[in-house]
Amino acid sequence: MIVLRGAVFLALGALLDPCSKLGIHADKAAESAPVSTTLAAPAPAASPEQISLEEAKKLCADGDCLTAHDRIQIALPPNSPLRQTADFKSLENRWAQSAVTGAESDPDPTGRRKALEDVMSSPVVDATYKTQARDALPKVVALQAQLADAGAASATSESGASGDSKSKDRGGHRHHGVPPKGGKEDK
Asked: CA-to-CA distance for 20 and 14, rounded, in angstroms?
């Protein structure tokens, strides 16, 4: 029986041996397989210039392209590579369109003129907006001249050239309703 038992163990050993060899091979295969231990590199942090451009895009999308333009003009140096991007050019064109349209309703002709001149001198604004600004400029210059003439005429009339003597005493001084000496106001 001892011999039988030995044979049984040998038989069982033969059956188990291929399994154990497979296990060893599986372990060795797992050990020899390359395992990637590198993690994906984190995205680089946005530069202050990039953040300013993104903020300006949001401002313009919300309808405030003038503030957006002013911010990026300050935040992006003239040699910034971001000034060559499609985002920057798109933002500047939206500002130009807004500036030309807004110049028609701006009550300050000096502000109108400056906005139009800024559009015309921008190196990235499309020619369409530059042409619109150039075409609108003579109207603004004429309006400035009219207002200057009206202001000069108004200043002349307020200085006493109108001949209004009802509120003046004999010396030409205004008393704003205060009667001159003698107790009676000139009529």
From this structure: 10
